[in-house]
Write a structure and sequence with these properties.
By secondary structure, the chain is mainly beta. It contains ten helices and 41 strands. Strands 4, 7, 10, 11, 13, 17, 18, 19, 20, 21, 22 and 23 form a twelve-stranded antiparallel beta sheet that branches. Strands 3, 5, 6, 8, 9 and 12 form a six-stranded mixed beta sheet that branches. Strands 26-27-29-32-31-30 form a six-stranded antiparallel beta barrel. The longest helix has 13 residues. The chain is globular, with a radius of gyration of 25 Å. The N terminus is likely disordered.
Length: 630
């Protein structure tokens, strides 16, 4: 493996310092917003496969046969596909630590792994309870024969997810649990890699439970030319959405959902929404009876373009994409039955941020539903609003009273073509191409075609979520550009972190410098001055200790400019907010008194961990403020 030198690093950053990313936006109307398509040049999720040559030998926890029922109790609202299974051998940090067999990573650090086997599972997810995990650790999750296809996340990335859980007031066990993405098959491996200088004692992790997935929703048949989904279990009267190109924008806004709660794993449907400024922030609408807690939101996986490539082919399109980074819960309400999330991942190119209308829909209006019944390939339904309904939630059921008038909190819909089923919950009701409701409950089915579905009215939910989707246009968001992702790397050779808002620079670092471990999106900021309220963040390269300094202080900037023998001026890295506010999150700054390098983090949990663990890091307070979304 080729190693990078300080001179090489300096030359590389000097050559790329000018690269920046611009992001397009969409249009807006009063009390309604039109759709916006995710452009092909939007910042994509980086794919990093920098595994060491020698994979660690995992300790194996074989749980054997599972005595619990392999099918879920029938429910009409959601589809359960898996249940929790206790794991006593890794139920405590001490037990897990005893199983982890640490070995040299080949990159100056340590690596260890543990595998779990649950007989007859079609898929597994592991729940890691984090006591402590270095921010620059790398966690990989994979099937034992597919390490090259591993899902990777940094310790910092996990800390950010857990910070969301803690801020939402989740109980300690749920707040500190990170659920791995699902792995196909009956065996799952969790691998932890530590950089040089980190000790095995820095890792305090337990894995007290798994989710055993007993429905075959992942396995695909590869016949050499295409993939055939084995599911295809929606009722026969449902309609393939691919057959209706007039609704291409609506179907590209709708995703299948997989999430974990206290009972197990479930499927629902959700819809990506645009906002007033077309910022590209991935707001995602679904139902409260699907996701009503931050812990469940953090476990969310979304499946995009999960449909057929051609009408009624019953095959899975090769364009299908899966996002595995979870979401942040912004709003939820049991009645009307609605939840608004913001995804932690960037939606794939071609995904549509659906338009919406916060005005009431008239009785008789023609409607379209796009959804994933039983978690199947995407379907579409056509019908009309026939009245409104007053619905009261219960445990797994709703008690509803219909009205011919339009004064209740739910639209009553009757289908003329197609149908919904469990798993369709949370999906959008479209009128004139824009979202006006979210599926809550109903009696309609292929055996009860005269039944009804009840959709939570978007106009009744809108006042509570207006602050996100239709906020007053702030001065710093008034231009034609949204916020850009700022990416973080850890330099395993120097122990320093590097940040960039340039996708091109991010990808070049990944491709050229193996010592730089990619840690994903750190936060969001502006790529240019967008109005009052923003300050430039200046980036300098310290040639003496091979690290970067980021500052909003003009006096600090001027002092470094006056010393060009040490500091290379790399210009404005991005624009941020000088002070703290309810709409932003702080970036905290530390000085490593042993090396003279600075460390920055937008995670309060990581800040507290550094303060508690590394006395050589002098805490210097809030540097500036940034955003959690585009």
């Amino acid at each position: 493996m080729v190693r990078s030198s300080r001179a090489c690093t300096q030359a590389f950053f000097a050559a790329l310092a000018a690269l920046m990313l611009c992001i397009g936006t969409g249009a807006a109307q009063a009390q309604s917003v039109q759709a916006r398509v995710q452009p092909a040049d939007m910042a994509k999720q980086a794919t990093v496969q920098r595994h060491q040559a020698l994979a660690p030998v995992p300790a194996v926890v074989d749980l054997g046969a599972w005595a619990a029922p392999k099918t879920a109790a029938a429910r009409s609202d959601v589809v359960q596909i898996g249940a929790r299974r206790a794991v006593t051998l890794t139920g405590t940090t001490q037990a897990t630590g005893a199983l982890l067999q640490w070995q040299a990573s080949g990159e100056g650090g340590l690596v260890a792994a543990v595998s779990f086997v649950s007989d007859d599972a079609f898929g597994l997810r592991a729940g890691l309870q984090i006591g402590s995990l270095p921010g620059n650790a790398t966690v990989r999750v994979y099937a034992p024969d597919d390490r090259d296809g591993a899902f990777e996340i940094s310790g910092r990335g996990i800390a950010q997810i857990l910070q969301n859980n803690n801020q939402a007031g989740e109980v300690p066990a749920a707040a500190n649990t990170w659920w791995t993405p699902a792995v196909d098959g009956n065996e799952l491996t969790v691998e932890i890699q530590l950089p040089a200088g980190a000790a095995a004692s820095d890792v305090k992790v337990s894995i007290p439970s798994l989710v055993h997935i007993y429905e075959n929703i992942f396995a695909l048949i590869n016949d050499g030319t295409q993939f055939q989904a084995k599911l295809n279990n929606a009722a026969s009267c449902t309609l393939d959405s691919t057959c209706y190109d007039a609704y291409a924008r609506q179907r590209d806004a709708v995703a299948r959902m997989l999430y974990v709660n206290a009972d197990g794993a479930f499927l629902c449907t959700g819809t990506l929404l645009n906002d007033r400024t077309g910022s590209g922030t991935p707001y995602f609408m679904t139902a409260n009876h699907c996701i009503s807690s931050q812990a469940a939101a953090s476990s969310l996986q979304t499946f995009w373009f999960y449909r057929t490539p051609s009408c009624n082919s019953r095959l899975l399109s090769s364009a299908s994409k899966t996002l595995k980074g979870g979401a942040k819960l912004l709003y939820t309400s049991a009645t009307p039955d609605a939840t608004l999330l913001v995804l932690n991942d960037t939606p794939p190119a071609g995904a549509v941020f659906a338009g919406w209308d916060a005005n009431a829909v008239a009785k008789g209006a023609a409607v379209v539903g796009v959804h994933h019944p039983r978690g199947d390939l995407q379907k579409i339904s056509f019908g009309n609003v026939v009245g409104s309904t007053d619905c009261k939630p219960g445990k797994g059921v709703f008690t509803c009273y219909a009205s011919d008038a339009m004064g209740e909190n739910y639209y009553r819909v009757q289908w003329s073509q197609g149908m919904t089923e469990g798993g369709s919950s949370g999906s959008a009701l479209f009128v004139n191409g824009v979202l006006t409701g979210m599926l809550s409950n109903g009696s309609a089915s292929c055996t009860n075609v005269g039944g009804f579905n009840n959709y939570a009215r978007f106009d009744r939910v809108f006042p509570a979520i207006q602050q996100w989707l239709f906020a007053e246009v702030a001065a710093f968001a008034a231009d034609s550009h949204g916020r850009s992702a700022v990416f973080r790397f850890y330099n395993a050779e120097t122990g320093a972190h590097f940040y960039t808002a340039s996708v091109e620079q991010r990808d070049a670092v990944i491709a050229v410098f193996p010592a730089f471990q990619y840690e994903g999106v750190a936060f969001y900021a502006y790529s240019q001055q967008a109005g009052a309220g923003l300050v430039p963040v200046y980036r300098f390269y310290n040639q003496q200790n091979a690290s970067h300094v980021y500052t909003v202080s003009t006096s600090e900037r001027d002092a470094m400019r006056a010393n060009p023998a040490v500091f290379s001026d790399e210009g404005v890295a991005w624009w941020a907010q000088a002070g703290e506010s309810s709409a932003t999150q702080a970036v905290f700054r530390f000085l490593n008194q042993q090396t003279g390098r600075y460390f920055y983090t937008a995670s309060a949990q990581e800040r507290d961990q550094v303060i508690a663990t590394y006395p050589q890091f002098q805490y210097q307070g809030v540097a500036y403020s940034v955003w959690v979304g585009q």
